Amino acid sequence: MTPRNPGRLFWPLASILVLADCSSKRVIEATVSPPGTSVPVIGDALRFTLAYNPGAAFSTRFGPYQRWVLIAIVCLVLVMLARLYRSVTRTGWIGTVGLALVTGGAVGNLIDRLISSRGVVDFIDVGVRSSRFYVFNLADAGVSVGAVLLALALWRSEVVSPTSLTVEP
User: Fold this and answer.
1) What are the residue numbers of the active site?
2) What ranges make up the beta strands (E) of the chain?
3) The model's pTM
4) CA of 32: how far to CAs of 24, 124, 167, in Å?
5) What is the pLDDT of residues 99-147, one digit of tens each?
6) Dihedral-angle region of residue 51 (phi above 0 means left; psi in -120 to 50 means alpha; beta otherwise)
7) In a 3-state reduction of DSSP, which class is residue 156?
8) Contact present, 48 and 124 (Cβ < 8 Å)
9) Helix axes 66-89, 138-160, angle to 10 degrees
């Protein structure tokens, strides 16, 4: 079902994710210190561990100018997402939610890169004993869930109509 006014879903959801991401990062920075310190939330399965990621996903590094390269890449991705807005929101609420989560997550992590050379604040630490996943944040979770929803929406629209999605100027 295509939302009549996708902006009524997109903008609040993207904004809430940016606000929740930025505020949770500031709270963690103020309460969990120094970096590397872990605070159990649900036993050992969920901990808050303050970490700074100057690289890309999974701490991938791109050399001495990576901060500025990553800022430029995120800005280009946001321009691309803006260009896809009309087409994606026509796929229905799944595409609209997916696009909002990807956009909100990208903006949340971009804000970290702009305000600090230390990198993106990560703090959600899940795992069991020494088997841990990468430490991440709400923006990362939004991008991941949003990408899955966006892919599902685009795949479903391709199944229905292969010519329905076009990038509009």
Assistant:
1) 122, 140
2) 38-42, 46-53, 120-128, 131-132
3) 0.85
4) 11, 12, 44
5) 999 999 999 999 999 999 999 999 999 999 889 999 999 999 999 999 9
6) beta
7) helix
8) yes
9) 40
Q: Do the beta carbons of residue 82 and residue 75 sit within 8 Å? A: no
Q: Are 21 and 139 in contact (CB under 8 A)?
A: yes
Is residue 44 helix, strand or coil? Answer: coil
Pairing of strands 120-128, 46-53: antiparallel
Q: In this structure, what is the dihedral angle of CA atoms 18, 24, 30, 32, given to the nearest 10 degrees?
A: -140
Retrieve residue 47's tokens: 């901990």
How far, in Å, CA of 12 to CA of 25, rounded?
20
Phi then psi for residue 126, to 5 deg, are -115, 150
User: Where are the domains positioned within the chain?
Assistant: 7-31+55-118+136-160
